[in-house]
Amino acid sequence: MADYTAINNPELYFQTKAYTGNGTAIGSGGLAITLDGSENMQPDWVWLKRRQDAGYHHNWYDSVRGVTKVLYGNLSGDAEGTKTEGLTAFNSDGFTLGNDGDSNASSKLHVAWCWKAGTSVSGTTTGGTGKAYSGSVSTDAGISLITYIGNDNSAHVVPHHLGATPELTIIKERTTADIWVVQNSVAGFGNYMTLHTDSASATTGSNFITSVNSTAVTMNENAVNNEDGNAFMMYSFASKQGYSKIGSYYGNNDTSGNGTFIYCGFKPAFIIIKEIGGTGNWAIQDNKRTNDSLSDADNGNMVQLYANLTNADDTDPYIETYATGFKNKNGNSDTNASGQQYLFYAVAESPLVNSNGIPTTAE
Predict the structure, then answer these.
(1) What value does the mean pLDDT of the chain take?
(2) Fewer Cβ within 10 Å of end Cβ, the chain: N or C?
(3) DSSP state of 72
(4) Count of other CB atoms within 10 angstroms of residue 291
(5) Secondary structure of 165-183 in the HEC alphabet?
(6) 3-class SS at 26?
(7) 287-324 per-position pLDDT tens digit
(8) Residue 256: CB partners within 8 Å, gap ≥ 6?
(9) pTM of the model
(10) In this structure, are residues 118 and 62 in contact, taking their beta carbons and an 8 Å threshold?
């Protein structure tokens, strides 16, 4: 079956930007980052990481919570913070930064992973005392950014507006410090992983999510994602043919460059991978952070960052990308331990076949 897609140009909804900071404060103009894809894109979610020097946090900003409001993807011990010198504007073609060291250190290398949702939603939840929610959603791109208020009810129904059942959700409390809960359809929504650790998927006596469907996520009575009166952020994703894929594969520990191949139906621009049943880092690769001295300049030179760590770029490439997916390059346990199952979320650089049935890439 042809891999037709509703999104011929993925850069309308996702772009990676590698940039060098200038250390300029907002009062002196800051740093305006222009995304350099083929299309202007005003992002709704920007994930920032300083990739030079260790010890700097993953900073998450989104248009739903508003500018300067940061969540730290690698930390559980922090609630939402305010950075007046962090991300201060979502622009029509990018965003503006102050001189915060995590995202705009002078002469240092940084990266921004940027998603567009674009359609505003709001309403009142059901199941117990109704609470306000609001967000930004793209049904075409399969992404939903929702902030909601908890009600401590065992059947708290929070709409996601995806128009499809989420395969991956990431939830973080904003009001007080608590863990990052990652749940997915591969391991089952009765299990969870934590974005800020390398821990294996686990079960909990009081499930965080009791059910998901094409309209809503039902929260259980749990302080982690449903504390009464507290604010939470929920990022939800559904696979979209030719644009994004959430799935799993089994590693083979091949060290000769012929590791497991994972079919996506597109050439990936961004991939995040996590071992499900064992400990392992959340490995992130993209098509903008490259080291051309390593190997094939098109496929095998992507370098890693880790969502749960403050490390700088790891320049030993784990995977290679192709027109239809990606393949493990070595036996690193973060992505290719023998017999271990891995969760992945990938976003396209280009679909294999566009909406008119015309091949778009020949690599």
Answers:
(1) 92
(2) N
(3) E
(4) 15
(5) CCCEEEEEECCCCCCCEEE
(6) helix
(7) 998 765 544 444 556 789 999 999 999 987 788 899 99
(8) none
(9) 0.95
(10) no
Assess contact for 133 and 149: CB atoms under 8 A: yes
Coil, strand or helix: which one is 224?
A: helix
Which letter does DSSP use for residue 22 in this model?
-
Residue 333's region, left for phi above 0, alpha for psi from -120 to 50, else beta, is: alpha
Amino acid at residue number 275: E
Going edge to edge, which strands form the sheet with 119-124? 119-124, 132-138, 143-149, 231-237, 168-173, 181-184, 191-194, 202-203
Q: Given this model, what pLDDT does residue 352 score?
A: 74
Does residue 31 have a pLDDT over 70?
A: yes
Are 305 and 51 spatial neighbours (Cβ–Cβ below 8 Å)? yes
Using a 10 angstrom Cβ sphere, with 0-12 exposed, 13-18 middle and 19 or more buried, the burial of residue 123 is middle
How far is it, in rounded angstroms, from Cα 18 to Cα 61? Answer: 17
- The structure tokens listed for 84 are 């007046």
Buried b (16+ CB within 10 A) or exposed e, 32-69: ebebebeeebebbbbbbbbbeeeebbbbbbbbbbebbb
What pLDDT, on the 0 to 100 scale, is given for residue 120? 98
Enumerate residues 6+ apart whose C-beta is below 8 A from 121.
Answer: 134, 135, 136, 137, 146, 159, 161
Beta bridge partners of 231: 149
Separation of alpha carbons 279 and 220, rounded Å: 26
Token digits for 222? 């749990």
